[in-house]
Amino acid sequence: MKVTMRDVAKAAGVSPASVSFALRGDPRIKPETAQRIRDIANRMNYSVNATAKSLRSGRTGVIEAAVFQLDRPFYSQLLAGISNAALEHGVQAVAQQISTGKIGHEKSILEKVANQFCDGVILSAGGLSNAEIMELSKGKPVVLLDDQSYQGPFDSVFTPCEDGAEAAVTHLFDMGCQNIGLVGAEFRPFDQALRSMRVVDRRLIGCLRAFERHGLKLAESAVVPLDDWDTDDAYEAVSKTISEGRFTFDGLFCMTDAVAFGVLRALREHGIRVPDDVAVIGFDGVHAGEYVTPSLSTIAVNIDEIARQSVSILCRRINEGRHGAPAMPKHVTVGYEVVVRESSARIS
């Protein structure tokens, strides 16, 4: 016999309404009570009748997470966190890849949101304006990851780009590095970078601040640009820089851990010792950094917190049932930790 919501309520000693609230992550139920109800529902193999629920509420119980590349370590770890957080709120999360620079993909995803595919979306929308997001979402809740507008009209969760990058470069200076290079940045003057909210420019701002604090200016020759923050591209770019005799660095800040993995490989193949000859630090804090050789120093972003905040904010907006961007959008920047491992730990 199929287990009903009333069966779960009886086993938990609560009302059916409390079970319903707990399974959809309604804040009216205390977190510890909601978790107990979910545990009981799982043990009893209770499942929500999704079709009936959707007809009653006008919701599907599905949220979408749309990110640039599903195969990147940062995004795969983030999506796992979003999936777990969604389950804690009683909803399901599905993932969608947005190819970098292909605006049509981003528009298509938001059009699906408007057509009842899901109740809301967590979106990396680097190529869409606020007006386009407003129009295409048709009032469905949207949470932006690293919003590219300053204090924009949508809820957003940010990585600590400026402060994290400044801490990374400062760490290299502290390790005694005197010729520090950046891999994956685009060189531009400080005032130009300040006018941009792109992730790459926000991280560049942090680097420039660190150089300035040490009485130095970042030279254009100290930047190794990449078309994409890709491991293969980083490997090729640094290998080329070394082969052409332009590699003069004793410290490298890589814009992501994925970039750092390619850099470490290139340095090893060219006989450059890490950290003896060159200290290397990445940005993100993905799990794989612990297991490469040498293990990777990094700016470890609280990826699980990005997932929890994004899902929590989105589910709150869905439950509010509001249309359009919120009157008072929430903007959250998560924390970070400087994790020092073998790739930069020089012994004086």
Automatic annotation (TrEMBL):
InterPro entries linked: HTH_LacI, LacI/GalR-like_sensor, Lambda_DNA-bd_dom_sf, Peripla_BP_I
UniProt keyword annotation of Metal-binding present: no
MF term (GO), any: transcription cis-regulatory region binding
CDD domains for the chain: HTH_LacI, PBP1_LacI_sugar_binding-like
Residues of the HTH lacI-type domain: 3-57
SUPFAM superfamilies: lambda repressor-like DNA-binding domains, Periplasmic binding protein-like I
Keywords, comma-separated and alphabetical: DNA-binding, Transcription, Transcription regulation
Pfam family, any one: LacI
Protein name (database record): LacI family transcriptional regulator
Species of origin: Bifidobacterium callitrichos
